[in-house]
Specification:
Layout: H1 5-12, E1 21-25, E2 29-34, H2 38-59, E3 67-72, E4 80-83, E5 90-94, H3 110-125, H4 132-140, H5 142-148, H6 153-166, H7 176-187, H8 208-223, H9 226-236, H10 244-252, H11 256-276, E6 284-287, E7 292-298, E8 304-310, E9 316-322, H12 327-343, E10 360-365, E11 373-377, E12 382-390, E13 398-406, E14 412-414, E15 421-426, E16 432-439, E17 442-449, E18 454-457, E19 466-472, E20 478-484, E21 491-496, E22 502-504, E23 513-519, E24 525-532, E25 535-542, E26 547-550, E27 557-563, E28 569-575, E29 578-584, E30 591-592, E31 625-627, E32 634-644, E33 649-658, E34 664-672, E35 679-688, E36 694-705, E37 717-728, E38 731-733, E39 736-748, E40 753-768, E41 773-787, E42 791-805, E43 808-819, E44 824-826, E45 842-843, E46 853-855, E47 857-865, E48 873-881, E49 884-898, E50 910-920, E51 927-936
Parallel strand pairs: 2-3, 3-5, 44-45
Antiparallel strand pairs: 1-2, 1-31, 4-5, 6-29, 7-8, 8-9, 9-10, 11-12, 12-13, 13-14, 15-16, 16-17, 17-18, 19-20, 20-21, 21-22, 23-24, 24-25, 25-26, 26-30, 27-28, 28-29, 32-33, 32-51, 33-34, 34-35, 35-36, 36-37, 37-39, 38-39, 39-40, 40-41, 41-42, 42-43, 43-47, 44-46, 47-48, 48-49, 49-50, 50-51
Helix pairs in contact: 2-3, 3-6, 4-5, 6-8, 8-9, 9-10
Length: 938
């Protein structure tokens, strides 16, 4: 749901799919799932066919290809994505349901919403083009196929969101929470411009493609027609090639950007009319926050407020504020203004802020990118919070756990292990918590004994039901929580922990959104946020008198009410710049609610012949269920090009194939220098990842003639053919990763042969605190080799220290290689024919030609820095051969590997390398050299 192609790849970070996987085959879908998600997968199989049938009726479009669907839970969070290739379409469905205070919580059921949204992406974006020759290329070239439809992000996500709402009567188009926030943006003149729709900058910037995109497309359908908008999609797949702008303006007679401005004007006008009749809210600013903030928690003594904030740099911090007024800041401001007037009596002093920023008592940065969420005070000095752990069996599968933070000592301790606990409430002795546990798609309300790690469900688990915000009352005898089931709104309950009696809190008639309950200080009433009529408001329910009162009247988008010790009420006021904290007085005007919702059933705001049936968890047995088949391979054309001004250029043409989960990858191709034939040859590669032990095989046959390179070097003419095999076993302990490897190579030359066995290991460790990080890696290998005339031994050793200082990435490295009775050759670049992994004699360096020089012993030193993660490096490198300095280089470089982790073969195993450097040495002329390389390699 929240993703682009690149963003999804970064989220997944090449997950491990080594678990026990199964496949359900239906008429139009193959559903692949890890065995623990069997219940979700079986129900999904039925839901997919239902959705496909209804979408075909509504869109008059379908896919004629079998769609591969992956059901899993890599992030313990609600999400999904689609890879809309016309030849091999893929959907990924994350089984964790959304929480109550998200823009995707308004649905008849998570599974139905997710399936519909992602399938619409495929139907919308994966249609074959009517241009025959272009479609032929799409059918054999994954990368071209995936990027063929240059559809703006707001169009892709906006249209899927529009249809998700039109076909369910719910969704983000009809969501009170989303609408209340967009109204705030409109009132402040801050709705995104057309250019900003595709971006992710600013507060909720990444959500605007969904929220404003769907509303703009809905406006177009109402002001023109559904058929007019649909014509745009038809034109985009025409024989004549058109991008979105051409297709749109040809139908509507105007550019989308111009019509969007009109839509924004109308939307803002309607919102401003509503504002004119709103009663002013008697609230005051209490604390300005930094862009994103969530889940404030008041300490037991009321002296501190903990809030999770995320700034513009996407740094996540747990900040603990004093609840007292910042007298020191006020005095410093007054002193500064007095000094200003003392120096210039006619100057105009600054206006004092509405409230001075409260003192930050402690700040905790997230550690190792594990996140921080949902802080709760166990006592006045200890906070519990959520952060991610990694499952060792699936290296990149994140699981939400509970950690403690002692604010006095700074000590952090992990309290649960792979428990999947999201929001929770903790007893004051810190030994027991009540939380929502998510595992295998099931949301459960559980009691956790932190001493014994015993987890006790409070209710029978059902895929139909989800829970959120378990909150203990002050004397810890009652537990308030939210729950929802299929086709229902969220409902608030109060459970007596002793008698097990349960009270359902009455809701205002017509409500839709419900979230963030919080007990009053005396425990006699419960605050919460509810939404109706496109607004969100603060409510209070008095338990004994059963009285429901409404404290606000839609004047602001509100969240997270918290009663202070003195009886005043803090709450989040959501603005276009992010939430701020405001306060309502102890005595405030309120309205008693007298009209209540008759039941929990959610009203559908649009019903027609295309509306999906009510959401359901399907439990009937499926047919066509098999073990996952790694031999179900999908092949693609793979093109690569490499240019190195120091050596040569290579055009790489290959056929690459893999199964959906990348358990078995195959590649065969040919690479050739089209200029002067300095390097050419063929190769075959295979990689097997289905087990904990990893295997790699390669065959190669190449010719390297160094006299034909761009730069001079030792003249050698090498014809080499042979094979390479490696077996490795990666494992990890927390942040420490170790991978031992055993490899063998046999190479036959014209006049001789060479073989070697290598035993080695790589090790990696890092510690990341956002602005500051430190890490190190070691790669060590021992060689035992021989040829017709001699035997030899050698070793490789490299070490690297890296990190960040003040958010600036840095590194320094050292490398040493030695071969007895066998030469090392410095220079050249990595490719499918020659690379560092399968060739023992090369010391590859992009800015030097192959065989620049040879030696028995090599040492390299270097370092660099970058201005931002993901940006190119400014670097320095020195090469020493047999104890003497041979060359040094410095400049700019960037290197990265891209792998989506699953899906079509063409979106995995890409290697990118570019650079510009100054190379200096005594044996050649100093000069600038450049390189640019893009190719596929296993």
């Amino acid at each position: 749901m929240k993703k682009t192609l690149i963003a999804s790849a970064l989220l997944l970070a090449a997950p491990s799919f080594a678990a026990d996987w199964q496949t359900i085959h239906t008429e139009n879908f193959n559903i692949h799932y890890s065995i623990e998600h069997v219940d979700f997968a079986k129900s999904t199989a039925s839901e997919l066919e239902i959705v496909r049938t209804k979408v075909l009726e509504q869109q008059n479009r379908a896919l004629d290809k079998i769609v591969d669907v992956v059901v899993f839970d890599p992030l313990n969070a609600a999400n999904g994505f689609a890879l809309p290739t016309s030849n091999n379409p893929v959907m990924a469905l994350f089984t964790t349901p959304p929480q109550s205070d998200t823009v995707i919580s308004n649905s008849s059921g998570w599974q139905q919403l997710l399936v519909l949204h992602e399938y619409i992406h495929l139907v919308h974006l994966a249609q074959p083009t009517r241009n025959d020759w272009q479609q032929q290329i799409r059918s054999i070239w994954d990368l071209y196929d995936l990027t063929y439809s240059d559809t703006p992000r707001w169009v892709a996500e906006g249209y899927a969101t529009l249809i998700e709402s039109k076909m369910t009567g719910r969704g983000r188009l009809f969501d009170n929470y989303s609408e209340s926030i967009l109204r705030e943006f409109a009132q402040q003149g801050a709705l995104p411009t057309y250019e900003q729709l595709n971006g992710d900058e600013g507060f909720m910037g990444g959500s605007m493609a969904y929220l404003m995109g769907s509303r703009f497309l809905n406006w177009l359908e109402k002001n023109y027609s559904e058929q007019t908008l649909d014509s745009v999609w038809t034109r985009m797949q025409g024989v004549k090639t058109r991008d979105f702008d051409e297709a749109f303006s040809g139908v509507f007679g105007q550019k989308a950007a111009k019509l969007y401005r009109r839509f924004i004007a109308e939307y803002t006008y309607k919102v401003m009319q509503i504002e004119q009749v709103e009663q002013p809210l008697n609230s005051e600013l209490w604390l300005e926050l930094d862009l994103y903030a969530s889940n404030p928690a008041l300490s037991n003594d009321g002296s501190k407020l903990a809030i999770v904030e995320r700034d513009k740099k996407r740094n996540t911090k747990l900040i603990i504020y004093s609840t007292q007024d910042n007298i020191k800041a006020q005095e410093e401001f007054t002193k500064a203004q007095k000094e200003l007037l003392d120096n210039d009596a006619q100057d105009i002093p600054d206006t004092a802020p509405n409230v001075f920023k409260r003192e930050q008592k402690q700040v905790l940065n997230q550690i190792n990118r594990a996140g921080i969420a949902n802080p709760r005070w166990a006592n006045n000095t200890t906070l519990y919070f959520n952060a991610y752990s990694n499952e060792e069996s699936g290296i990149y599968n994140k699981v939400s756990d509970i950690f403690s933070y002692n604010t006095e000592t700074g000590n952090i301790e992990q309290l649960t292990e792979l428990a999947g606990i999201r929001r929770f409430s903790v007893t004051r002795d810190g030994e027991t918590l009540y939380g929502e546990q998510i595992r295998d798609g099931y949301s459960e309300l559980v009691k956790v004994d932190l001493n014994t790690q015993a987890i006790t469900p409070l209710f029978t688990k059902r895929l139909e039901t989800a829970y959120d915000y378990p909150i203990l009352n002050p004397d810890e005898t009652k537990l308030a929580y939210l729950s929802t089931s299929l086709n229902e709104n969220w409902q608030l309950y109060i459970q007596d922990l002793n008698s097990k009696q349960q009270l359902s809190v009455p809701m205002p008639n017509g409500y839709q959104y419900l979230s963030q309950p919080n007990f009053s200080q005396n425990g006699e009433s419960l605050y919460f946020i509810a939404g109706l009529n496109s607004a969100t408001d603060i409510y209070n329910y008095h338990i004994a008198s059963k009285t429901l009162t409404k404290l606000t009247q839609g004047q602001e988008a509100v969240a997270h009410p918290i009663e202070m010790i003195d009886g005043s009420l803090l709450y989040f006021s959501i603005t276009a710049d992010g939430p701020n904290i405001k306060t309502l007085p102890k005595t405030m005007s309120s309205n008693v609610v007298t009209e209540f919702a008759a039941n929990k059933q959610a009203p559908l705001l649009l019903v027609n012949e295309h509306t999906l049936p009510k959401a359901e968890i399907y439990t009937h047995e499926t047919t066509g269920q098999t073990n996952y088949n790694i031999l179900d391979q999908h092949a693609t054309l793979a093109l690569g090009s490499q240019y190195y001004s120091a050596s040569t250029s290579v055009l790489d043409l290959s056929i690459k194939s893999s199964d959906l989960l990348k358990q078995l990858d195959l590649q065969a191709g040919y690479g050739s220098d089209l200029n002067d034939g300095a390097l050419h040859g063929g190769y075959v590669q295979a990689k097997y990842n289905a087990l904990d032990v990893k295997f790699k095989l390669a065959l190669f046959d190449y010719n390297l003639n160094t006299s034909r390179q761009y730069q001079e070097s030792s003249n050698v003419d090498i014809d080499a053919r042979g094979g390479f095999a490696a077996i490795s076993y990666p494992f990890k302990f927390g942040q420490l990763n170790v991978t031992p490897e055993l490899a063998y190579n046999y190479t036959d030359y014209k006049q001789s042969h060479k073989k070697w066995t290598r035993f080695g290991f790589t090790q990696h460790w890092q510690y990341d605190r956002q602005d500051f990080a430190i890490g190190q890696s070691i790669n060590a290998s021992w060689y035992d080799g021989g040829s017709k005339s001699s035997n030899w031994q050698g070793y490789d050793l490299s070490a690297k220290v890296f990190g960040k200082a003040f958010s600036i990435p840095l590194y320094a490295n050292f490398e040493q290689k030695q071969r007895g009775d066998n030469s090392l050759a410095l220079g050249g670049f990595g490719s499918n024919l020659i690379n560092q992994q399968q060739s023992s004699e090369y010391i590859l360096s992009s800015d030097l030609p192959f065989y620049s020089a040879t030696a028995e012993r090599y040492q390299g030193y270097g370092g660099g820095f970058s201005f931002k993660e993901g940006m190119p490096w400014l670097y320095y490198k020195q090469h020493q051969l047999d104890g003497g300095v041979y060359a040094q280089s410095y400049g700019l470089k960037y290197q990265g590997d891209f792998s989506f982790g699953m899906g079509p073969a063409g979106v995995n195993d890409l290697t990118f390398n570019m650079g510009l450097s100054r190379v200096e040495g005594d044996s050649f002329e100093d000069e600038m050299r450049a390189w640019l390389s893009f190719y596929y390699s296993l």
